[in-house]
Amino acid sequence: MVNVAIVTDSTAYLPQSFVADHGIQVVPLHVVIGGTEFSEGVDVSTAEVAVALRSFRPVSTSRPSPQAFLEAYEKAAAAQADAIVSVHISADMSSTVESAHLAAQQSPVPVTVVDSRSLGMAMGYGVVSGAEAAAKGASAEDVAGVVLSRSVGSKVVFYVDTLEHLRRGGRIGSASAFLGSALAIKPILELADGHIRPLEKVRTSARALARLEEIAVTAAEGMEHGVDIAVHHLDSATRAEDLAARLRERVPTAHEVVVVELGAVVGAHVGPGTLAVAVSPRTA
Fold first, then answer.
1. Gene3D superfamilies attached here (predicted)?
2. Distance between CA 275 and CA 161 in Å, rounded?
3. What is the tens place of the pLDDT at every residue in 168-192?
4. Helix 120-135 vs helix 140-152: angle between axes, to the nearest 10 degrees?
5. Residues 124 and 166 placed together within one structural domain of the fold
């Protein structure tokens, strides 16, 4: 039986219990606050990022180095992995995939690098499904297929209090069409084929959150094996918990509805007050 190890990056925002239960290695991206670099999930909190953003301190992000990935691959090989599947944030949002490819060239065992075309728990659930397939003896190719299928099959929608942080970070894409009326609207955005794009614009935050709920309920309909749902937030825990509670009531096919705080890297681009929902179809 082939022993396939799973490596991902910190933008999957997997709860620590998921990481431990499935033996997943997580390589952190970096966030720079006021000129000081931190490793996401290691030595900087999302609360610190939220404070910096609210006070207009300079905040930027950067990918892991190829060396960081190589160290993860070497660790997996030392633990008797025959192959590695390395799953990462959409290449249209970060050059993390590029670092993984560079490291793969020097890895002591073969590495299949997967551009998830996603982020957050949409990617995270794909990683978990890949780890489950690997535990059953699937090949690296099959594991990568499972990961990508679930990642791109997920529906991701989010509400941001302001488009300003996305604009500053250059991640706004076609959602820039909303900028002209940004003060008058509350934007609902979606992740589609690795890109952030505008979905709807409404007049109040209450209406935006109601639309997030409706979109998630609709996305869960007709999924043969049910769904898993993650509600992400940055500095908006109460609203996230309320939304999750409503989704638990309205989506009977949800195997789980979890609340997961967005980490520093994505948080730096979307800003405080963000809420996002990832609806991920289960395969069995």
1. 3.30.1180.10, 3.40.50.10170
2. 9
3. 555 455 445 455 445 557 788 899 8
4. 150
5. no
Global confidence as pTM: 0.90
Q: Mind listing the pLDDT tens digit for each residue in 119-174?
A: 999 999 999 999 999 999 999 999 999 999 999 999 999 888 766 655 555 545 54
Q: What are phi and psi of 179, to 5 degrees?
A: -60, -35
Give the range of the structural domain holding residue 115, as residue numbers without chain letter: 4-29+64-152
- Phi-psi label, residue 193: left if phi above 0, alpha if psi -120 to 50, beta otherwise: left
Task: Look at residues 51, 49, 63, 72 and name the one whose alpha carbon lies nearest to residue 11.
Answer: 63
Question: What number is the average pLDDT over the span 209-215?
Answer: 95
CATH number at residue 212: 3.30.1180.10
Is residue 43 over pLDDT 70? yes
Query: Are 259 and 129 contained in the same domain?
Result: no
User: What's 63's DSSP letter?
Assistant: P
CATH code for the domain of 113: 3.40.50.10170
